[in-house]
Amino acid sequence: MHAPSLPDRSIDAYAAVTERDRLERLRSLAEALSDVRILHVNSTATGGGVAELLRSIVPVCNDLGIDTDWLVMDADDDFFEVTKAIHNGLQGSGEPLTDEMKATYRAVTARNAAEIEDEYDLVVAHDPQPLGMLEGLTERLSDAPIVWRCHVDLTDPVEEYRAFVSAYADRIDHGIFSRSAYAAAIDVPETSIVYPSIDPVTEKNRSLDEAEVATERDRLDPLSFDAPVVTQVSRFDPWKDQFGTLEAYRRARKDVPELQLVLAGGMAGDDPEGLALYEQVANEAVDDPNVHVLTDLPDTTINALQRLSDAVVQKSLREGFGLVVSEALWKRTPVVGSTVGGIPLQIEDGRNGYLVEPDDATAAGDRIVALLEDDERRTEFGANAREHVRERFLLPRQLVALLEVFVETLKRDR
Q1: Which residue in 90, 170, 247, 392 has the most C-beta neighbors within 10 A?
Q2: Total-model pTM
Q3: Domain that holds residue 217
Q4: What is its EC number (predicted)?
Q5: Which CATH number is 167's domain given?
Q6: Pairing of strands 146-150, 191-193
Q7: Residue pair 197/398 in contact by the 8 Å Cβ criterion
Q8: Is residue 414 part of a domain?
Q9: 381, 331 in Cβ contact below 8 A?
């Protein structure tokens, strides 16, 4: 296990983007947790939404006076091959779960659990990767409740994978899910629904002045913003359906011949499929100079790209939540997204973007055209988008909900 380096983060930094009452609520909850020590555990410090959330949540909690640590599992490629199969199985597809895969999972999780020597009052395990650690943790930290934060889309899991994860449910005291539809898949004693959120003060989401935008625009050359640009930002993962987005773009180009497409994404440290899929997508687009397949861009560049794009697409086939949608909406860029996971919670169809069925690339292309051909509509959608995210999907709101779960689980006086 290892502790990632963390940025400095003050709760006062959010005063300009969230209500004063919400910040006061956070301070009140933090006071109830001022004498406890909390541990977050996950499987990677880089790539993907979980690592991004923890990189903000942990330092803010410490600033509030809640003693909070974050440890990342140490594991090899064999383990991550297994956990990606578990992830895929929980989202509805995948290879059979073999005894060898189970043995690999149990060996690595047991070894990591044995490395935790400090005392904690509450442990938060994120996603399926650390669940195998719970037996060792509950033996050594017998008085510490276990909260499982599931970020995965559990709409239609493969039964053998659902059963494998459910075997750990009796060691979980409270499960946190991103949608109520997910909670029914795993039987835990107590559950809460907490929407994830973006952090508006990070490099990816903070305000940029004109000079910064101009610098990042130059960095993105040969992409030209003198012609329409549609962007999808997501990990290179089969569930993100970059190929479907390519199909939607090709449909839209029939009406907007000068249209350009950007497929930008990174590689999560615990996802062995990422590089291979990136290469497949790049090969599919290699003959079209108007398609730009970009990887591992700096956060400031992603920030500017989402602002400069005329529209953003998120055509996922499954999606735990899809915070890249809120990232774009926060920057007043309308989004065409699929009706899966948490995307419909973020997109108000016909108000800040459009929703389409996940396998309907033609409809996605038509909605892209509708946005590109109506400047007034894009401006109106952008204003609605910013306010919708401000109300529902910024970090202080999520942190209030998380701390309420911690207070309830630890039976503290609020």
Answers
A1: 90
A2: 0.90
A3: 210-392
A4: 2.4.-.-
A5: 3.40.50.2000
A6: unpaired
A7: yes
A8: no
A9: no
